[in-house]
Amino acid sequence: MAAKTALVKVFTSFMDGMTAVDAQIEVSITPGLPSFDVIGLCDSSIRESRGRIQPALAASGYKMPKGHITASISPSYIKKSGTGFDLPIAVGMLIASGQLEVPSGVRIYSSGEIMLDGTVKGTPAASLRLRMNHEQYDMVFIPEEEVDAARCASLKCMTLRSISELRSIFEDDGYSPVSYSVDDIGRSEEDLPDFSSVKGQQKAVRALLIAAAGVHNILLLGSPGCGKTMAGKILAGILPPLKGAEIGDVYSVMEAAGLKDDPEESLILSDRRPFRYIYPGMSRGRILGTPSKLMPGEFALANHGVLFADEIFEFKREVMEALRVPLEDHVVRMSKDGRNFAFPASFVFVAAGNPCRCGMLYEEGRRCTCTPRVINNYMGKLSGPIKDRIDLVAEMRSISGEYLAESAVKEDIKVNEQMKAYVKSAWDMQRNRFNDGVFNGTCCNADAELFRASSEVVRYAAEIAEASGFSARGFNRILRVGRTVADLAGREDMIKADVAEAGIYRKGDNQYVRAGLSAS
Fold it and tell me: Which one of 28, 174, 207, 291 has the fewest beta carbons within 10 angstroms of its own beta carbon?
């Protein structure tokens, strides 16, 4: 057995909000009465590692080192929590006591919780922590449960089921890392309804295609049962699959939100874009996140996907108003202990609601029983700033008996595949125009030169905005939607027809305008 080492350094990482921070653990064993101290501004979950590591070493065939053991975790000025420090502390103790022999100068990274029987378990937010630069380390050990997190990070490492496996690695078999990648997950297939099943809703289908192609906010208005929710779900299916870092982004936030242990959620590493659903009665913390715990909400969980807000007019006013900044900046900001944290929230926002209290305003045959005042009061629940952030409005009506009969017949038509191709082509044009991850609907401002909009087209957009009473933000968004219409057509330069279509979708039909929702 090698001579005892006075001081050993092992590296790990921990979460500070949604940011991963590198940490260094120094383990020292000095002569004296047996004791075990963990220092470095640690909470009880880290200090309790003493009670887990001692029986775990005994169960795995190791000896508890004699003398005074000190484990110092730096940086010491940041408060730390979590059980992921167990494994690196144990590794440091075994090396410092001479039970594991490591060549001088070897840098070791590890993280994981240790059970009393020596089993190594994964810890929350592993994918965020592992996505840091690990090329600086010579050896990387993680729990076997964190293989998906390693794929997100494209990490080269070895996985452990138990700390007893360390002996064979350091003494017998040697360090043999495996390279993990998101390319290993394959491609997911989801059996979603096809847009061909959305009968008699041509305007809504076109608006949804534009929303998907440019990542625009859209409002669907229609009577109950006309297919608003189904259309929103199908929308997620025509978006291009997640790729590379996006897969890791989605998985990381879901893991940080604790969905890994939620039996109602299915946390799997997938290239499928998320579809999140919010509804009246859902708390603000559930939607935007909980600052006290830095827990992401549905806005952050919908990042890179679709957020569907059902019955938008029934949301509490304070909840609705809290959506204003995230819908504009595509970020959810939180404050805790005087520090600011941010969660990315870039998605296609699909809101759905009835056009009036009875829901029959758009139906033929004068079926609506609401008075103009009731309609205005109902539609007025959506404040001006929220309305201003809606890029497209589409009306949906109950379909006729003929269409109902057709909807029950399964057709061998793949409209979704056609729409996917259109959306992918539009996204490719936007990737060439902006930095990756920025779209027409999420860019800061419409730039006439960048958008390839002539002065004539810009003047035409300004005339539409002035005639319709749109704000400066509304004018800006007409240009953004117009640019998306041009992208769908494969045009490098915008034309007046692109802007005209954008203006139509921003206004909605005449009933919608009269209800006071088109202008702020």
Answer: 174
Say if residues 161 and 147 touch (Cβ distance below 8 Å). Answer: no
Full-prediction pTM beyond 0.90? Answer: no
368 plus 397 within the same structural domain = yes
Q: Is residue 206 part of a domain?
A: yes
Cα(230)–Cα(211) distance, rounded to whole angstroms? 16
Beta-bridge partner residues of 336: 339
Distance CA 238, CA 246 (A): 17
Q: Are 282 and 235 in a shared domain?
A: yes
Asked if 201 and 271 sit in the same domain, the reply is: yes
- Please name the residues in contact with 336: beta carbons below 8 A apart, sequence gap of 6 or more: 17, 291, 292, 294
Domain count, the chain: 2
Measured CA to CA, the distance from residue 22 to residue 12 in angstroms comes to 6
* Long-range CB contacts for residues 122-127, cutoff 8 Å, separation at least 24: 122/146, 122/149, 123/82, 123/83, 123/84, 124/15, 124/82, 124/255, 124/256, 124/258, 124/260, 125/15, 125/20, 125/252, 125/255, 125/256, 126/84, 126/255, 127/152, 127/153, 127/248, 127/251, 127/252, 127/255
Listing DSSP states for 8-65 in one string gives: EEEEEEEEETTEEEEEEEEEEEESSS-EEEEESSB-HHHHTHHHHHHHHHHHTT--PP
Residues 270 and 310 in one domain: yes
CATH code assigned at 148: 3.30.230.10
Contact yes or no for 109/139 (Cβ under 8 A): yes
AA letter at 476:
N
Q: Which residues contact 61 (CB under 8 A, 6 or more apart)?
A: 164, 167
pLDDT digits (tens, 9 = 90+) for 34-62: 999 999 999 999 999 999 999 999 999 99
Per-residue pLDDT reduced to its tens digit, 169-209: 988 778 999 999 887 676 666 666 777 777 778 888 899 99
Tell me if 211 is assigned to some domain. yes
The helix or strand, by DSSP H or E, that contains position 221, with its residue range, turns out to be strand 218-222
Does 366 or 414 have the greater pLDDT score? 414
Per-residue pLDDT, 265: 60
310 and 219 belong to one structural domain: yes
Tokens 């775990």 belong to 56
CATH label of the domain that carries residue 265: 3.40.50.300
Which of 390, 422, 454 is a domain's end point?
422
Query: Last residue of a domain, which of 367, 399, 422?
Result: 422
Confidence class for position 412, pLDDT limits 50, 70, 90: low
Determine contact, residues 312/219, Cβ cutoff 8 Å: yes
Two tokens, residue 144? 């076997």
